[in-house]
Structures are given as structure tokens and as C-alpha cells.
Amino acid sequence: MPWAAALFEPKSVAVVGSTSPGKLGYVLIGQLLAGGFRRVSAVGPKGQGALGVPGFRSIGEIPDAPDLVVVASPADSVPSVIEDAGRAGAKVAVVLTAGFSEVGKKAEEQAILEAARRSGIRLVGPNCAGIVNTKARLFPTLETRPPSGDVAFVSQSGALGGAVLSWAEEQGVGFSKFVSYGNGVDLTDVDFLDFLAGDAETKVVALYVETVSNGRAFLDAAAHLAAAKPLVVIKSGRSRSGVRAALSHTGSLAGSDAVYDAALEQCGAIRVAGIEEMFDLCRGFTTLPPVRGRRLVIVTNSGGPGVLAADAADAAGLEMAAPSEALRARLRASPHLSTLGSLANPIDLTVQGTEDGYREALVAALDEADAALAIDVNTPYIDAAPIARGVVAAARATGKPVAACFMAGKTVAEGLPILKEGGVPNFATGERAAAVIAAVARYERARCAVRSAWPTTKTQPEGRRLPWEGDALEPEVLDWLEGEGIPTPKRRLVTSADDAADAVGALGGSVVLKVVAVGISHKTDVGGVILNVETKTAARDAFKRLRSVGGEGFRGVLAAPMVRDGVELLVGLSRDPQFGPVVAVGLGGVYAEVFRDVSLRVAPIDAAEARVMLGDLRGAAILRGARGAAQRDLDAAADLVAGVSRLPFRYADLAELDLNPVFLLEDGLVVGDARAVRRDAAATRAWGGSR
After folding, report:
1. By the 8 A CB rule, do 393 and 359 touch?
2. 409 CB-near residues (< 8 Å, 6+ apart)
3. Are 254 and 247 a contacting pair, CB within 8 Å?
4. 548: which residues sit within 8 A by CB, 6+ positions away?
5. Does the N-terminal peptide bond of residue 305 adopt cis geometry, omega within 30 degrees of 0?
6. How many domains in the chain?
7. What is the pLDDT of residue 254?
8. Does some domain include residue 614?
9. Residues 133, 141 contacting (CB under 8 angstroms)
10. Amino acid 252: pLDDT
11. Do 158 and 124 share a domain, yes or no?
12. Of 247, 278, 369, 474, which has the fewest beta carbons less than 10 angstroms from its beta carbon?
């Protein structure tokens, strides 16, 4: 990535904009100099320097071409500035100037991009807050200079990025790099994630995003990065009002928030709700050793906070196992532990907890646990420093992850520097500490697991077309699915009452009759399904009723054998505007939209990932045979979900597919009903398989 060296480690920087005191150019030069970067030039119509920095009328006048150009000149001047930079030999421009697509001026923004392409220069922005590389003492930004550390922060929003940098020291997080890419006309989230995956100066990457630039390319980059280091993501726009605000801010298409959740999980990223949680996780990932299991022990000197933390740990998926009898005996034998405390989990040392008590309890308990949380609820007459020393000593002695919650305020002030120096992260509450430990443990499990949830992004359509024109009716869809190897029932399409009567005899036993009519998708809602038809007379009567339901769009009645004792699933396929084809599986039937027990993945997936999806369902126990019922054929279900996920890559004109119900049996399955929607020709051509 030639642009990355010029952006983050330039030999020299040119600042384009007014250098009068108080103007952006002046502020940027001041930031660069204050940070320790010296090879700076000022460029403006008057050729005016500032703060001891030489001034030039154009970039081309600078004796040695700058690698990086930072642009804060008026919007209408930016294209010519970019061309000047390209002619001079600059490699990257960071455009802080606003007033482009974010205010509806897309043509003006396109002009910047075209100027950059003509000039062979890469762009960050426009409408951004600049970049930071603390390791190179490089601060071409209008925001606060943060402390140096191991976290890289990439933000679509410049203002939020600036706020995060301002909070960094208070939150105990140091940054290696920061980049605000604003409107992302050229370099985007994808480019920066690709670069940071291999950046030796960065241990954790945090990302704030409103809409991604290219869904599938984003997942490629995120999966590649998350395999190497944690990726913590704030994705705004969960609510309808949040989506509207994000769209007005970015002018981009927005995908479903549930799809974002699924996509981020697939690629191994960790989604958080907001800045506070992001800081917590970044602090945890940069200070804690890997959490290689789920067993957590809590050592506390107060029952209430310990119980709250235990509840949070359990809810986050950690195991709060009670100490073994051998561990209890070891703790009881210690002269430094109060006889009044509890030896359950949490281990309660009571207010008599001491430096030695914390150290011994933690060291002993970590023989059985994978991680520990030390809680100190301090009172004014207790010195927090010795307790902090005991916690740090235990962490060093065991080498295992130990987090702390020293609460609260001034009463623990003496202990906090000791924890920080000892590499033990401290959190405001035990609940937050437990959530971080759980997240670090989940990341370690996901990183080590052998899963093929991604990479499947390179799949290309095979160019087939669906075998019908216009709106498909259920018999056409079932015939097509059968040709694709998907299990469908024996069936007959009948167009008269006598044919319906004959179908009962031919199909044998009890049958279901369903109306086939243009414009009727949800047959049950209009009385278009009649179950348990067993005689020819009943079949004739049922046909007449369904003929009336079908109205002018009536095309016939579909007869099929009744399926007994099947658990009903839904398997669906749709297209997200950001990520393209998405597959879903959930508990099905007429109440599917009520229960909303659905798991999503960006398609295509394999059967192993489909099994994970089935396990994610709240009703997964039903499939496994709850309360003595027989287990269902989960392998057949997984094969179906994986097969459906591949269909839009065979048929680029497939927009939606809804299989509901799918009857999952003890051995195999059968699709009970199917609906498909075709894409229009323009959308099919536009997709091309890369989204």
C-alpha cells in the first residue's frame, strides 16, 4: 500500500489554506509543530508562512515535494489544489474542507475524485478531521493530540473521532493511529482496515461507521483484520430515527441493522453499543492476556457488588463455578483470609480483606479459573494502595487475566496508579469488567475456532436465469427447487373439482389443498389452505371454496400429502442494499412473524455455519428434542440453508425466496410452501456478484 507510508509516515507535509492566526491552516501548522513534526510547509495564494514555517504560493514551488498534503482551502479550490499536489509529486491528500456530498453537492465531490485520478494521488476525505500517527509524532488534525498507545481508531465521523481522542487519556487508552475519512470519496474504511491488519504498531482496531462503503469488500477486510487482532465496531443507526440521521449525514444507502449484526459476527468483529463500551474493550484487549476459557472467579470485599458482577458474568456467557473442596480447604488454611467470608464464587473476603488476602485468594482461585475479577469497595479509612499491590502481584504470579473494579471515587485514588502500572485494567463497575472479560474470551474462542463463515465473498453468479417470467406461482417455484435438489412434496396442480377428488386417491391418505392464485402470497391469511382432506367429496367441496378465494387471479389448487410430526422452520433469502444476498433460518409456520426467532448470515455459507445458525435460535432446544421429543434432522436442515444461500449466485435475477413452512422430520425434511420474487433486469445487471 504505497499510500499508507505517505499518509502515516511522510517525510514532509504541506498545509494548504489560510495561515492567518485563527484560520484552519494556522491551527494545523501549530498542531504539527506542537506534536514534534518539523518538515512542514505552508501553501496559500499569498505565499504566507506561519509559526516559522516557510510559505509558498503553490505546492510545486516547494523545493522537495511533500509526501502528504493537508487541504483546508475553500471548497471550490480543492480540485485545483489536488492537481497541483499531483503535479508536484505528492502521494496523498487529506481534505478537511467540507461542503460536498454531505450538503448535497455530489458533482463537486466527484470533481475532486476525478482530479485525484488524473493526478495519481490518493485522497482522505473530504469533510474529515484529519489523521494521527503518535509513533511518528504526526498530528495533521484539528482534534486533541491523544496519548500514544496500541489502539487504532478509524471514524467516519470527524466530530465523534475528535471526542474519542479528547477522552483517551481520561479513559486510560492510548492510540497508535487515528483516521477520520469523512465522505470517503477515495480511501475508505476498507482501505484502512486492510492496512491496519498488518500494522505492527497496532494491537486493537476500533471503528465507528454509519454506513459501509462496499458491504462485501468491507467483510473481506474486517475478516482479514479480525483474524489477526480484535476489531471493535460501533455501528450507529439501530433505530429508525438513527437510520434516518445516518442517511442524512452520509447520503449513503443503509442496510438492515440485523444484517449488520450478522455480518459483523460472521467476520469476527465485535459490535458494541457506544463509546463507553468501546473504551472498555480497547482497554481490556490491550492489557489483558488472552482469556482461554469461560471460568471466572470473583474475589471481593463486599457482597452486593460481587453479586451484581456475578449476574453480569453469567448473562455474558461466563461460568461462575463454585470452588472445589480442595480449593476451599486451601483458602480456609490461609492465615490472611477472614473466617467470616464466603468461599463460594464470588469469594467474599469481607471488609477485612488485605493485600495478602487478595493475593493469596486470587492466586489459589486462578489454579481452577481462566480469569479473575478483583473488586475492592473501599471505605475512607482503608488504604486502597496495598490491596492494589496484592491484585497486581497475583496477576504477575499467575500470568492469567485479572481485571479490577476499585470503587469508588476518591477513596480508591491511591490504588489506581498501581493497577495501571501493573497492567491490571480497572473498570467503574464489576458488571462492566465482567462484560469485557466475556468479550475477550469470546474473541479468543472465535479466533481459534475452525469456521468457514467467511471468506465466501469472491463467489460470482453463474449467469442462469429463473425459469419463469413475471410473478412465479407456487407450483413453478416447487418445480424449480426440485430441480435444484431441494426436497419437495409429491403434488398435483388441479383445475377442477373432479381433478381434486382424483388427487386425494392418487396421493393417498390425508392431503392439503392450497389455492394457487396471482396476488395471493400468504394463503392462510385469506383462508386459502384446507388441511386434512381425506375423501373425494371433501376434496370437491374444498376446491369450490378455494376457487372462490382465488378470485380473478385463480389458476388452480395444489394438492399434496399432509406432513405429520414435523417441526416447522422458515428458510428465507433476501438482498440487503449493503451486503447483497442474505440467508435466514428460524422457527416457521403462521406465527413466524410474531415470534421473530430468526438467525441471519450474509450468503453464501456452508453447512457448518448453517449448523451454528440453527444453534443460535432461541427455540434450538425444540430442534434437539425438548421434553422427550425426538431430535430433528439438523444435518438436513443445515444442508438446506447452505443450499438456499448459494441460489442467488447461480441465479442473479433471484431477489427473494421464502420457504415456510419447511417440515423438519426425524429423518430428512420437506418444503411445505415456497414463494420467490424475481429482480428487475436493471438490478440484476447492476449487481454483478460483487456486492
Report:
1. yes
2. none
3. yes
4. none
5. no
6. 5
7. 41
8. yes
9. no
10. 38
11. no
12. 247
Residue 352 Cα distances to 311, 337, 339, 391, 413, angstroms: 24, 8, 10, 15, 19
Cell numbers given for 325: 473442596
In a domain, 484, yes or no: no
Residue 474 DSSP SS3: helix
Is 453 domain-assigned?
Answer: no
Query: pTM of the predicted model, to two decimals?
Result: 0.87
**Are 519 and 375 part of one and the same domain?**
no
Q: In this structure, are residues 448 and 490 in contact, taking their beta carbons and an 8 Å threshold?
A: no
User: Does residue 381 belong to any structural domain of this protein?
Assistant: yes
Task: Tell me the CB-side half-sphere exposure of residue 532, using CA atoms within 13 A.
Answer: 1
Following DSSP, what letter does each residue of 187-222 receive, concatenated?
A: S-HHHHHHHHHT-TT-SEEEEEESS-SSHHHHHHHH
CA distance 384 to 404: 12
| CATH number reported for the structural domain that contains residue 600 in this entry | 3.30.470.20
| Cell numbers found for residue 172 | 486510560
Q: Is 436 found in the same domain as 294?
A: yes
Q: How far apart are the first and last CA of the chain?
A: 23
Domain closes at, from 260, 287, 314: 287
Q: Which residues contact 316 (CB under 8 A, 6 or more apart)?
A: 434, 435, 438, 439
Q: What distances in angstroms separate CA 643 from CA 172, 437, 475, 498, 657, one per listed residue?
A: 48, 37, 20, 37, 12
Residues of the chain with pLDDT under 50: 241-254, 450-452, 456-457, 682, 685-691
Determine how β-strand 92-95 pairs with β-strand 175-180. Answer: unpaired
Collapsing DSSP to helix, strand or coil, 265 comes out as helix
Residue 78 sits in a domain whose CATH number is 3.40.50.720
Phi, psi dihedrals of residue 672, rounded to the nearest 5°:
-85, -30
- Residue the block writes with cell 385469506: 526
Q: How far apart are CA 257 and CA 235, in angstroms?
A: 9
What's the confidence (pLDDT) of residue 665?
Answer: 93
User: Strand, coil or helix: what is 127?
Assistant: coil
Q: What is the DSSP string of 481-496?
A: HHHTT------EEE-S
* Domain of 552, in residue numbers: 490-561
